[in-house]
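Try it yourself: sequence plus NDP, in.
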Amino acid sequence: MSATIIDGKDLSLALKDEMKVQIAQLEAKYGRKPCLSVIIVGEDPASQSYVRGKIKAAAYVGMDSRLIELPASVSQDELLSLIRDLNADGGVDGILVQLPLPKHIDSNLVIEAIAPAKDVDGFHPVNVANLWLGLDCMVPCTPKGVMKMLERAGIEVAGKTAVVVGRSNIVGKPVAKLLLDANATVILAHSRTKDLKAMTLQADILVAATGAIGLIKGDMVKPGAAVIDVGIGRGADGKLHGDVDFESACERAAYITPVPGGVGPMTITMLMANTIECFIKRMHAC
Ligand code: NDP
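Structure, out:
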């Protein structure tokens, strides 16, 4: 069997083109476009590259964006005060603070300072709690992207066995909850799981989110499974790789996402979707 590749780049482009149309309609209706405010602290090259990608995506879909670049020496109080200003700014719909932050700043305090209604990353405790309670919330971008890939590839989730490998707060746990909400039977595996292969072989839907390059070999994939590879790491060859050994997994999976060009582009695209969602909710609340 040779798996069908779910191309995250193509899908992202299609979704962003749909958003372009939607934003033009929103602007005609409400007199302004959604606006995403992105704060970056310091000059970490990886963070700068992620932020550039986000601003570029915002421009592509036609939304407004504000990039606020702060020196690594900025104090926690100054950052919190800036967030409070953005919370109160009626022209800003989404606020994203690029992580990680310098060590002298408490990331939890910063995340908690963002108004839940503008929390486009879905990391605020109120949004996390509401996700787990099944209430209206901002869903974190990567998990949302995983679900969108399954949906757009036409993969039925209800009644399936889904195995998520990795239990972080930003990927593994929310993906597991979203799959549960979509009526999958979910196994959440991690580094202390005994016999990971016995777990993954049960997976109709296998989501790998560990950062351990090549952890999932082809013989760990159930024939006919849908394999979503969230992991990204740089291999000894200097190239980007996922958690899944792509070549061998392709032989068994029915669907698979590549790395790069899989979940990565979807994460940024879902950030755009979340900003639009914040905008619409705020307009309706007015
Ligand atoms: P974390 O390091 O926070 O979590 C990794 C998880 O994987 C942990 O739960 C850990 O288990 C588990 N794990 C690690 N090694 C193994 C192993 N050998 N077997 C089983 N489980 C293991 O990472 P994140 O969740 O933040 O990110 C995961 C990966 O996804 C990374 O490669 C990251 O770069 C990538 N990523 C990609 C995004 C995208 O847009 N494509 C967005 C976000 C992340 P334990 O809890 O027991 O330690």
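One thing you can check immediately is this: The two ends are 53 Å apart (CA to CA).
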